[in-house]
Design brief:
single chain; 244 residues; alpha/beta; six-stranded parallel β-sheet; three-stranded antiparallel β-sheet; 17% strand; elongated; binds ligand BV8; binds zinc ion
Length: 244
């Protein structure tokens, strides 16, 4: 295991800060056994490109295929548990008067770990809504694929597909948190999906100290004053322990 020395300057900044924001991506759920988005296509789905499946066009072209992909991901996520990274972020929130957790993930694991008021930029797999806009439904008949809304339209996962706008309130809250943060964490994201990937740039431009938690370098790495190169489930608990 690589030793993870934590720079005293980082610990000092985190002890002095009052406003902290965190952006998470699929990497924060990796240690729960949820494949990251890029490799979410194991086995059956290996032949599909997520950027092609996670689109309104794909759903209109083959609603049953796209519904089944999400039903399988929903079942997989329901079967796993939040990991130490999710729980460390719950603990981190208690340390700061002004703490915002923004996630790109649709797996709902931050909520299941106990995080409150999570900004879900891309929606949530567990929620299902009418394709034609009647809103979220809390029950559906799985015998049909895809199941139908009372209005007759197909039901779809309540997630943001490529080409769809993010929920206005969510992206506004996330951008405001990025502008205000004294310390901005980018955890487990490849920084390739927009407009979420703008958030660390907005934070840095507003003067935040950016910290990246990721085993690998990403396009966001140049923005980071500190890069903690390890799995979030190891790094975040270590960071909290070092803060005391
Ligand atoms: C939109 C839900 C416009 C679905 C997802 C510029 C500006 C605006 C838009 C664009 C733009 N340029 C291009 C676009 C279009 C597009 C886009 O960004 N394309 C990319 C591919 C170039 N953006 C959009 O379409 C967005 N919509 O802009 O609409 C609009 C405006 C008005 C009116 C109409 C239209 C919508 C984007 C949202 C798409 N939906 N998810 C679903 O999940 O099925 S995004 C999806 O991919 C995931 O939710 C996730 O957010 C993203 C994957 O990213 P990551 O989370 O980073 O995951 P990834 O696997 O890539 O990386 C994992 C990382 O973890 C790695 O770095 C790895 O090293 C690390 N890791 C691994 N293990 C660990 C770890 N880290 C820590 N610990 C570990 N143990
Ligand atoms: Zn409807």
């Amino acid at each position: 295991m690589q030793t993870l020395e934590l720079d005293p300057a980082l610990l000092d900044a985190l002890r002095r800060a009052t406003r902290v924001a965190v952006l998470t991506g699929a990497g924060v759920s990796a240690e729960s056994g949820v494949p990251t988005f890029r490799d979410a296509l194991t086995g059956l789905w290996a032949t599909f490109d997520p950027q092609r499946l996670a689109t309104p066009e794909a759903f209109l072209r083959d609603p049953a295929l796209v519904w089944r992909w999400y039903a399988e991901r929903r079942a997989r996520v329901a079967a796993v548990q939040p990991n130490a990274a999710h729980f460390a972020l719950v603990a981190m929130a208690t340390r700061y008067a002004d703490f915002t957790l923004v996630t790109q993930n649709v797996d709902g694991l931050h909520l299941r770990a106990g995080s409150r008021d999570v900004v879900e930029l891309h929606g949530n797999l567990a929620r299902v809504k009418c394709f034609d806009g009647c809103g979220v439904v809390d029950a559906w008949d799985e015998r049909e694929t895809p199941p139908r809304c009372r209005c007759g339209a197909p039901l779809r996962p309540d997630v943001v597909w490529f080409g769809e706008p993010l929920p206005a309130e969510a992206i506004a809250r996330a951008q405001q948190a990025a502008r205000r943060a004294e310390v901005f964490f980018s955890v487990g994201t490849s920084g390739e999906v927009f407009p979420a990937a703008e958030l660390p740039r907005i934070a840095r431009a507003a003067g935040a100290l950016v910290v990246e938690v990721n085993p690998d370098a990403t396009p966001l790495s140049p923005l980071a004053r500190f890069a903690l190169r390890g799995p979030a489930g190891v790094v975040l608990p270590r960071l909290l322990a070092a803060l005391g």
